[in-house]
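Worked example 4.2. Below are the chains of a multi-component assembly; read each line carefully before continuing.
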Amino acid sequence: MNKHFQGIIMSKLGIVSYGSYIPKYRISIEEIAKVWDDDPNEIISQLQVFSKSVPGPDEDVATMSVEAARNTISRWKGNPQDIGAIYVGSESHPYAVKPTATIVAAAIDAEKELTAADLEFACKAGTAGMQMCFGLVKSEMIKFGLAIGSDDSQAKPRDPLEYTAGAGSAAFLIGKERVVAELEGTYSITTDTPDFWRREGAVFPSHGNRFTGQPAYFQHTVDASKGLMEKLGTKPSDYNHVTFHQPNTKFPLTVAKMLGFTAEQIDNSLICKNIGNAYSASSMLGLAHILNNSNSGDRIFMTSYGSGAGSDAFSFSITDEIEELKSYPLTVEYYVNNKEEINYGKYSRYKGILRC
Amino acid sequence: MEPPKIWRERRGKYLVLGILCQDCKKKSFPITQYCPHCSSENIAELKLAQTGKILHFTRVSQTAEELMFYAPYIIGLVELDDGIKVTGQITDTKLEDLTEGMKVRMVFRTLSKNGEEGLIGYGFKFVLI
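Applying the procedure described above to all two chains together yields the following structure tokens:
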């Protein structure tokens, strides 16, 4: 067995519950383009994104993580004191030193017998946390682990990133009891690829423009996806749904086609067109949305991508337990539709670009 | 806000805990060492209802320096579904969109920021359902 391959999983191990959160505010592509005299139709055509989510002035990665975690716990109806690990993946933690995960632990009443840490791997830190939880649960070091991907992503004004850098949070509770999505296997690709970065103390990230595409996003996503399917002996047509990292809508649609997935298989995951790129939460929000639209027996494929660079691929099989969790009201769909448009001035104030 | 205050108040502010007096059986908020109704020390922690209705509300424009980033903001008196009355900010909304009696639920938000380098205060606010 390859040293990086954590499948085939023999005992029932997987996702026990899930939760999401997306801020209420939206700014449209047209509104941003108006400020910079860009052609909105050209940008929408290129990115296939119409608006992006914007956190309110009293929101940050900690508050969004807590909301997603609380939705996960409420949907599960279990005891948060049974959670033995909390990992929060983000590239926009409110503190450089002071873990977000500790705030989440206190806010869901999971203190204090647990391990916790903040993770950073660009847009795949949340799925790295899922793998850590799978490992800890499988080895019976903990009973349940909570992995969160959450970001209030930064973008320099007028940078192309400004059109898509959104916000959101998704959480997955990993365990062995009442599993709704059984893990069939997980597999990762990691290389030193400098496609996107933010130096210590810098306010905004920098990127390699078109270099973020072929050698970065596409190469890693394809390699991790093909690698896992090869190990499991599966093919794209074996899956009902697939989700990839969504820096825009065009990239996941393109990589799905490259791998042989159809538009129908990826359709349920594509929330980027309404909320933009939620960074660490991006592929995880896609998975949360798929879970709420899946049925017992469905198979789900997910591959995240984090700049720097790496991809984590997962294969899940849905169990009968999913039906009980689908009626929880605060779904990805609820948050996508619960929205209020703001103008560029208010956006600048809420994002801290404009200060008094 | 100083570190000991954030640390001491976190359970009450994060989890919205009050007390249930084991002698007079009355509920109250926030957590105190004594029952405010009968002064008994025989009290237990009580997790309050997460939803309620707005009784009164107003807009705050002038406030403490650590809150000016959020101003103007709306503060309201909310009667929770378990009967306890709680004061808190009503966020993600505008004054003209509110009326008394509207249903709200609790959310987790930042309450204060001590400059660019100080601690961030977290706790509950309300949003419309």
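Take a moment to check your reading of the output against the notes. Residues 14-180 of chain A form a domain with the Peroxisomal Thiolase; Chain A, domain 1 fold (CATH 3.40.47.10). Chain A has two domains: 14-180, 181-323.
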